[in-house]
């Protein structure tokens, strides 16, 4: 390992050694809603994440930032269960969920949105949002075929709840019967948030919630995210490039670079961090760059 | 003039037929179906029964291919399974008619779920090939498991008995096939108003986000295969009672393509599409036959000359639909409805 990188790694290990017992202690008091430790993910010879660890405090907004290719979305995919990390643990309210499949994690209360909107194009806004309630509904195949009776009762209950809690909240009443494919980009993002909220999640993971939005749409989204946190008490973990938004609304920031955590803390602390500035703006020291390149080849 | 439909409860908003006009048309349709057997001759009743059987099977395939996005070319083979189950139950066990149909559906559903196992790993064309393979295996079984299936000679079935009545002629079978078709189509329509149906569509549209929402892919894909095969099995059972002889050649591979074409021509992922597609695919060849027959007074050898042309015209019609109306007949119907929505004030 080259010097620069080795230093980072050691620092992380040190923190983890201190951090792990803390995690155990925290879970008993219920402070960390989500805790990631020692997460390492390789794609063949490429190391996407190495020894990533951080805690997400319950009821907070935690932002993950970092340059392109830093491993933010890979980290999200590990947490929601699409990637199987080679090492490390993901704890959800103290319970190790590393071995669970995505649907099982959803059932526990982990919801997410995608960077490039993953709505169901063939359905209306309302049906998309109803799908968020899927795991909490009981209708089985036979009930569904018969419909009248149990299935109908449940459908109406869910409809009422979605209308009153989600659709009104996100101000999308006017488009509820529109097919998703006909909506503008900003509205689609909002519908995806609505679908995630319909899950009544404990933790909401947002992958670039305001990417590609104009100023007004960004402000709307920021307001919704804050309202979700405050009114619903949902813990939020988000990946975002819009530094203005990150600094304004997040309580805690984790900075990733080349698959490693290089800084974490309150927004103001992180922006002042030497390494973060270097990661974003580049370092003047050519020797360090050489060392880093040599390091990636060695890995 | 109607400008909208006022609903004051969520239940009313989620009804299948939500306007009075729709209910009126539905009632008229029901009356027409009831009156049809008294007005039609045996040939038309034969066609009506065949259309009913095809609607059941096409709706089944539509659940799998149109709604869940899993392309299957095994529908005819599944119908074959249902037909053999009915033939065996009727001749060997002598169990009642409706029970036999149910058994045909359930056995076929199980076969379908086994065939569906590869669907977790393979999609699209690859899955289509896997289902072709399964249908050839089933065909081989029909042909060579002589002790059970009677080999190439097949099995013959006595007429169905229901409430002491013998259902031998199309007139009698019509009264069984039509209600069963209506019930099964209605059940499918119902399903897509509930979480299970939505999960199927979710898998078709974006399987990754379906998983994130807590939909286990394998379970739902197998459920879709099972349900689709259940429909095929019941259709096959009705087919067996209708034609009363089941041989391996009754369910050729082309028949599977017939159903896939019906789903595409009718409109993938719409209940109405399954109905219209089955009607189109069954009746258009007959209509073309009729046209050729009408020409014979002027062209004495029209039947001999134009029969091959008939097949070409049928093929051209299908291609025409694919190019001009990729969303199928159901889309045309929707356009007609929109046109008359505010007619004659706005067209």
Describe this structure in words.
The complex is a heterodimer of chains A (299) and B (347). Chain A is of the alpha/beta class and 299 residues long. Chain A has two domains: 1-109 and 203-299, P-loop containing nucleotide triphosphate hydrolases (Rossmann fold, 3-Layer(aba) Sandwich); 111-200, P-loop containing nucleotide triphosphate hydrolases (Rossmann fold, 3-Layer(aba) Sandwich). Helices cover 47% and strands 21% of the residues of chain A. Chain A contains twelve helices and ten strands. In chain A, the strands form two sheets. In chain A, strands 6-7-8-3-9-10 form a six-stranded mixed β-sheet, with helices on both faces. In chain A, strands 2-1-4-5 form a four-stranded antiparallel β-sheet. In chain A, α4 packs parallel to α7 (185-198) and α6 (150-167) packs across α7 (185-198). The radius of gyration of chain A is 21 Å and the shape is globular. The N and C termini of chain A lie close together (8 Å). Chain B has 347 residues and is mainly α. Chain B has one domain (40-341): ABC transporter involved in vitamin B12 uptake, BtuC (Orthogonal Bundle), CATH 1.10.3470. Chain B is built from 15 helices and four strands. In chain B, the strands form two sheets. Chain B has a two-stranded antiparallel ribbon with strand order 1-4. In chain B, strands 2-3 form a two-stranded antiparallel sheet. In chain B, α3 (42-67) runs parallel beside α8 (170-191) and α3 runs antiparallel to α11 (217-243). The longest helix of chain B is centred in the middle third of the chain and has 27 residues, at 217-243. The radius of gyration of chain B is 21 Å and the shape is globular. Chains A and B meet through α3, α4, α5 and α6 of A and α1, α8, α9 and α10 of B.
Give short descriptive properties of this protein.
heterodimer, A: 299 residues, alpha/beta, Rossmann fold, six-stranded mixed beta sheet, four-stranded antiparallel beta sheet, 21% strand, disordered N terminus, B: mainly alpha, two-stranded antiparallel sheet
């Amino acid at each position: 390992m080259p010097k620069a990188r080795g230093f980072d790694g050691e620092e992380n290990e040190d923190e983890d050694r201190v951090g792990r017992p803390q995690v155990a202690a925290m879970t008993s008091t219920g402070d960390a809603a989500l805790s990631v430790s020692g997460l390492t993910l390789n794609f063949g010879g490429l190391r996407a994440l190495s020894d990533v660890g951080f805690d997400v405090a319950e009821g907070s907004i935690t932002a993950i930032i970092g340059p392109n290719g830093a491993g933010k979305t890979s980290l999200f995919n590990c947490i929601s269960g699409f990637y199987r990390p080679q090492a490390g643990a993901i704890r959800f309210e103290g319970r190790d969920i590393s071995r669970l499949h995505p649907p099982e994690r959803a059932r526990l209360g982990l919801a997410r949105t995608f960077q490039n909107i993953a709505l169901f194009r063939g359905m209306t806004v309302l049906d998309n949002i109803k799908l968020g309630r899927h795991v909490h509904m009981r209708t089985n195949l036979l009930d569904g075929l018969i419909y009248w009776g149990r299935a109908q009762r449940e459908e109406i209950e869910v409809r009422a709840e979605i209308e009153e809690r989600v659709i009104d909240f996100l101000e999308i009443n006017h488009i509820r019967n529109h097919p998703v494919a006909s909506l503008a980009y900003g509205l689609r993002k909002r519908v995806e948030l609505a679908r995630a909220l319909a899950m009544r999640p404990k933790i909401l993971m947002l992958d670039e919630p305001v990417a590609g939005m104009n100023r007004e749409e960004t402000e709307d989204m920021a307001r919704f995210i804050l309202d979700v946190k405050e009114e619903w008490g949902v813990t939020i973990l988000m990946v975002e490039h819009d530094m203005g938004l990150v600094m304004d609304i997040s309580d805690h920031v984790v900075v990733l670079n080349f698959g490693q955590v290089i800084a974490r803390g309150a927004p103001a602390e992180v922006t002042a961090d030497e390494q973060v500035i270097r990661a974003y703006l580049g370092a003047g020291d050519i020797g360090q760059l050489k060392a880093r390149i040599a390091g990636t080849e060695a890995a | 003039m109607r400008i909208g439909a006022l609903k004051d409860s969520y239940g009313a908003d989620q009804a299948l037929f939500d306007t009075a006009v729709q209910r009126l048309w539905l009632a008229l349709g029901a009356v027409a179906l009831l009156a049809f057997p008294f007005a039609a001759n045996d040939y038309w009743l034969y066609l009506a029964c065949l259309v009913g059987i095809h609607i059941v099977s096409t709706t089944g395939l539509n659940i799998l291919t149109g709604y869940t996005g899993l392309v299957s070319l095994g529908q005819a083979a599944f119908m074959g399974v249902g037909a053999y189950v009915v033939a065996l139950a009727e001749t060997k066990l002598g169990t009642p008619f409706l029970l036999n149909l149910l058994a045909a559906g359930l056995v076929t559903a199980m076969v379908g779920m086994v065939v569906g196992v590869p669907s977790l790993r393979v999609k699209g064309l690859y899955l289509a090939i896997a289902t072709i393979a399964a249908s050839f295996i089933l065909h081989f079984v029909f042909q060579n498991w002589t002790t059970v299936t009677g080999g190439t000679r097949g099995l013959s079935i006595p007429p169905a008995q229901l409430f002491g009545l013998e259902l031998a002629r199309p007139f009698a079978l019509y009264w069984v096939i039509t209600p069963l078709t209506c019930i099964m189509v209605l059940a499918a329509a119902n399903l897509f108003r509930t979480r299970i149906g939505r999960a199927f569509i979710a898998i078709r549209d974006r399987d990754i986000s379906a998983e994130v929402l807590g939909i286990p892919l394998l379970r739902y894909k197998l459920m879709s295969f099972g349900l689709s095969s259940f429909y095929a099995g019941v259709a096959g059972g009705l087919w067996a009672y209708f034609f009363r002889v089941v041989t391996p050649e009754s369910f050729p591979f082309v028949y599977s393509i017939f159903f896939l074409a019906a789903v595409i021509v009718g409109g993938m992922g719409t209940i109405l599409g399954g109905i219209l597609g089955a009607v189109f695919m069954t009746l258009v060849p007959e209509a073309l036959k009729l046209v050729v027959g009408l020409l014979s007074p002027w062209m004495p050898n029209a039947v001999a000359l134009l029969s091959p042309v008939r097949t070409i015209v049928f093929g051209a019609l299908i291609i025409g639909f694919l190019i001009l109306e990729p969303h199928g007949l159901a889309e045309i119907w929707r356009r007609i409805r929109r046109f008359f929505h505010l007619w004659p004030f706005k067209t």
